[in-house]
Specification:
single chain; 180 residues; mainly alpha; two-stranded antiparallel sheet; 3 helices; 7% strand; coiled coil; B box-type domain-containing protein
Amino acid sequence: MAMAGNKTQCFTCKKEKIIYPCKGCSKEFCLNHLTEHQQILNDELNHITNEYNECKQRINEQKQRSQYDLLIKQINEWEKNSIEIIQQKAQDCRKIVIEYLPTLFNDIEMKFNDLNQQIRQIHTENEFNEIDLNYLRNQLRKMTEELNNPSYMCIELNAHSFINNISIILSKSKFLPNNF
């Protein structure tokens, strides 16, 4: 004789049996299917544990061979390239100065020689007035200024960099504490 009062339908097999509730999923199972359900949950836990272990292994591998090496290598390469660019630019500027300065000094020297000729001629002819003296004084002052404050050549610093800027972008990990 079957006992009818305490049997309910199993979620899996849909048969009327003595059932056991699962508090996790709120479903009711017979003993056989409760055991299967528990095995499925165990399998899922094992799968999660395996994924965790694989992730932990990847973290350890990353720490050992690390992406840091790659990043440091890229920073070193950027530094080397930037130094080469600066050295080349400095060498180009030196070349301009070395090639151009003798010409400028020759021009100034020619102006001094010309002024010297004018001064000798005035001495020789002994005919001059205040206008001539002012002219000579102004010419001499201009040449002296040109020597003391050379406006023919200067260094101009350009605000637009010809070197690529480098920076490190840190994205906050979801796994780091908030105060990191």
